[in-house]
Amino acid sequence: MDKALVSPQNKLIYINKPSITQLEIEYVNDAITNGWGDKCYDYIYKFEKSFSDYLQVKHSMTTGSCTGAIHVALMAMGIKAGDEVIVPDLTWIASVAPIKYIGATPVFVDVLEETWCIDPQKIEQAITPKTKAIIAVHLYGNMCEMDEIMALSKKHNLLVLEDAAEALGSEYKNKKAGSLGDIAAFSFHGTKTFSTGEGGMLVTNNIKLYERSKVINDHGRDPKDPESKMFWMREYGYKYKMSNMQAAMGCAQISRAQELVNRKRQIFALYKELLKDVKGQINAEPSYVINSCWLPTFVFDKIIKFDREAFFKFMAERKINSRPFFYPITTLPMFDRKPENTVSYDIYHRAINLPSYHDLTDSEIKYVAESLKEFLAKNN
Ligand SMILES: Cc1ncc(COP(=O)(O)O)c(C=O)c1O
């Protein structure tokens, strides 16, 4: 191997991992040591309040995962078996699985070529009398066309759930991802820009959706029930909760929000500069969007010969983790194929994600970019 192309310090370059400072350690230490008894929710309440302040929304509810938050949100919106929910074909399965948990029907719609997010025109064509909601997934930090989506939702009396798992810190027309729809869900999985190990957040400005979500996520216990008393409830619910220890880590991360998002954007900008001669499409940032660049993503131009599997092998030999773009959900065996979603079916096999954790050094980013260019040069 070329001498210049040895991983700096010869270490494995992860695709992602959280940024941990003394602050995270101090808060989690405090939660483990002191956060019990009457203090067992202190970090949870603090995290929810800080998150609402950061997003400029009225209500935030911690959950054990974003998948759980999406499930609770759909139930709070009143989605029932037999209802249809419109969702992009190109996303992670967690945007879709909770629709199936309820027995509702996901209706898969194609994405826009520039943003890889759901196409508003295709949404309108997919609306039927059974449609109840739209899930707008902000993929890899890119933003959905929210004005168009919200206008459609008003016109057809639908609710909009933002799946903002991958877009914490992104902005659309000066409003943060997650503050634009009726309700939204975030992920704090270990690969995300802010992390609590595993974890999620449900946010909304709608008090009814918030109160309903709280009841559903507490085994159906409703503090407003006139017969409310300890251990009493009149319906089944779920329990997707976050622990105080995870929330302690969340409090540290949210207090570093700007720093964490800025570093993601810097990493992306460096890749963009280093790979400017490679033909293809990277994360979109139209003039009215700030992209928090969760995962630097490259969709190679059709003229470039690109074998995904050979690429991952090549990068692994250079101690670099890289990831494939998501498969269109309708190519998975449990769904009917929908090749008319031509953009989704065309993009994924010529697209990859690159490492972008906060502590990545500039020389590591250069090494990744050089390795990618070397791979493309060998095959083209
Ligand atoms: C678009 C999208 N939605 C939902 C989720 C689910 O998040 P979690 O793993 O916290 O359940 C993810 C997680 O990777 C995601 O990328």
Task: Characterise the protein shown here.
With 380 residues, the protein is of the alpha/beta class. The chain has 2 domains: 3-17 and 257-379, Aspartate Aminotransferase, domain 1 (Alpha-Beta Complex), CATH 3.90.1150.10; 22-255, 3-Layer(aba) Sandwich (Aspartate Aminotransferase, domain 2), CATH 3.40.640.10. It is 36% helix and 14% strand. The protein has 12 helices and 14 strands. It has helices at residues 22-34, 42-55, 66-76, 97-102, 120-126, 146-155, 207-216, 244-255, 257-274, 308-317, 342-347, 362-379; strands spanning 59-63, 84-88, 105-109, 131-137, 159-163, 171-172, 175-176, 183-187, 200-204, 280-282, 289-290, 297-300, 323-324, 351-353. The strands form 3 sheets. Strands 1-9-8-5-4-2-3 form a 7-stranded mixed β-sheet, with helices on both faces. α6 (146-155) links the parallel β4 (131-137) and β5 (159-163). α3 packs across α7. The chain is globular, with a radius of gyration of 21 Å. The mean pLDDT is 96. It binds pyridoxal-5'-phosphate.
